[in-house]
UniProtKB/TrEMBL annotation:
Boundaries of every ABC transporter domain copy: 23-262
One MF annotation (Gene Ontology) recorded for this entry: ATP binding
Protein family per UniProt: Belongs to the ABC transporter superfamily.
SUPFAM superfamilies: P-loop containing nucleoside triphosphate hydrolases
Transmembrane helix keyword on record: no
Name of this chain's protein: ATP-binding cassette domain-containing protein
CDD domains: ABC_Carb_Monos_I (cd03216)
Length: 265
C-alpha cells in the first residue's frame, strides 16, 4: 500500500510538470553522403518523462541522439526547446541549453577521483585573477551532495578505476547535474554490467525523472525499458515506426516492431 501511494504521488508530480513539451523534434533527417541514417523523424519529450528509444543496430538511434546533443547537424528538420527553435553546432551549445549526454563508454578518467570527473572541464576555483586555484573542498562537497541526491553510495574521493559499473554511471550522471540539465540522453547505460549494478542505474534514472529531468534511454534491454520508461519509441532503418505509452504496448509487440514482423505500432 505504501509503495502504491508513493507511485501515485510521483505520478501526480510528473503530471504537474507536463505543462509544455520540453523538447520537440519535427521532421528531422540526417544523411552521410548516400547513407540515410535518420529519415523524417518527429517526436516530443516532456519534463519528468523517461522515453525508451529502441531499435536494432543501425536503426538510427545513436545518430538521432547525437543530433539532439549537438554532435551532428541535421540535414533537415527543426529542434525546439520550450517552444523556441535552437540550432546546435557543437555539444557545448547543447549543454548551454540544458541538454547533456551520457555516452556508452562514459568518457571518464580512471586515474581521477569521482569529484574530479564530475567537474572535469568545469572545475570550481577560488581566489582572484592569476592567483585563482582549484577549490577541491568545494568540489568534494558539491559532488557529495549530488551523490546524496542520487542516493548513490559513490564517494567524492573514490578513484574511478576502483568503481563498479553502477558507480561509474553515477559519476557520469552526476556530471550532468552540475549544469542543471533539463534533458539527459543515455546511450546503453546498463550494457555489460551486473544485475545488481543494473538495478542501481535504473534507480538513478528514476531519481532524474522525479527531479523533473527528461531522460532519453537508448537500450537493447527490454526489461529495463519497461521498468523505468513512460513511453517507448521504436526506430527501424532510420524511421520511427512506433511511439507508444509503455502501458499500451508489450515486449512482444516492441520486438515485432524492431524486427519488422510488425510494420507499425
Amino acid at each position: 500500500m505504501r509503495n502504491d501511494r508513493a507511485r501515485w504521488r510521483a505520478g501526480v508530480l510528473r503530471e504537474a510538470r507536463r505543462l509544455v513539451a520540453t523538447l520537440e523534434i519535427t521532421n528531422i533527417s540526417k544523411h552521410f553522403g548516400a547513407i540515410q541514417a535518420v529519415n523524417d523523424v518527429s517526436l516530443s519529450l516532456e519534463a519528468g518523462q523517461v522515453v525508451g528509444l529502441m531499435g536494432d543496430n543501425g536503426a538510427g538511434k545513436s545518430t538521432l541522439v547525437k543530433m539532439i546533443a549537438g554532435n551532428h547537424r541535421p540535414s533537415q528538420g527543426t529542434i525546439r526547446l520550450d517552444g523556441n527553435e535552437i540550432v546546435l553546432h557543437r555539444p557545448i551549445e547543447a549543454r548551454q541549453h540544458g541538454i547533456e549526454i551520457v555516452h556508452q563508454d562514459l568518457a571518464l578518467c580512471n586515474n581521477l577521483s569521482a569529484a574530479a570527473n564530475v567537474f572535469l572541464g568545469r572545475e570550481l576555483r577560488r581566489g582572484f585573477g592569476p592567483l585563482r586555484v582549484l577549490d577541491y573542498k568545494a568540489m568534494y562537497r558539491r559532488a557529495g551532495e549530488i551523490f546524496s541526491e542520487l542516493r548513490s553510495e559513490t564517494r567524492p574521493r573514490d578513484l574511478v578505476r576502483q568503481m563498479s559499473g553502477g558507480q561509474r554511471q553515477a559519476v557520469a550522471i552526476a556530471r550532468t547535474m552540475i549544469s542543471e540539465a533539463k534533458i539527459v540522453l543515455m546511450d546503453e547505460p546498463t550494457a555489460a554490467i551486473s544485475v545488481r549494478q543494473v538495478a542501481e542505474v535504473l534507480h538513478l534514472i528514476r531519481g532524474l525523472r522525479d527531479r523533473g529531468i527528461a531522460v532519453v534511454l537508448i537500450s537493447h534491454r527490454m526489461p529495463d525499458v519497461f521498468d523505468v520508461a513512460d513511453r517507448v519509441i521504436v526506430m527501424r532503418r532510420g524511421r520511427k515506426v512506433a511511439d507508444k505509452p509503455i502501458l499500451q504496448t508489450s515486449p512482444e509487440e516492441v520486438t515485432g516492431l524492431i524486427t519488422g514482423a510488425i510494420e507499425r505500432g
